[in-house]
Amino acid sequence: MYIVSACLAGIKCKYNGKDNKNEAISKLVEEGKAIPVCPEVLGGLPTPRVPCEIIKDEKGNTRVIDKDGVDRTTEFLEGAKKSLAIAGVVGAKVAILKSNSPSCGCGYVYDGNFCGKLVEGNGVTTDLFIDNGIKVYSDKDYRLDK
Ligand code: SF4
N or C terminus of the chain: which is more exposed, having fewer CB within 10 Å? Predict the structure, then answer.
């Protein structure tokens, strides 16, 4: 069983109310091989919502801030924890998550200046998954285990 980003499965849960549908990943869900989760919605944020990016605060702590300057770290952590709990319930050891997202990004995320620049790093949920032994692929480099 896989966990997949819900927007990749065609669910319109992106910050702008759209999806990032990927046909192969949608098929996994339709076949009962993957469970879709959207950490930001699970964390209590609405759709549509103000986009967020990851920053380091003046103390060097990682925070998630929306484009209006509101700190959304609590919601992102809550969504990550709920996503991990779902992975535990369904026994998922592998996740395929949306690239570049502050929740789901794997390898690269936006730099916190809302200017479209990517830097190395992971989303909040991706980090929690990896810390708990879940292998994370991005939608750009995933492979399906046989
Ligand atoms: Fe997609 Fe993840 Fe963003 Fe939800 S939090 S819209 S699943 S990338």
Answer: C
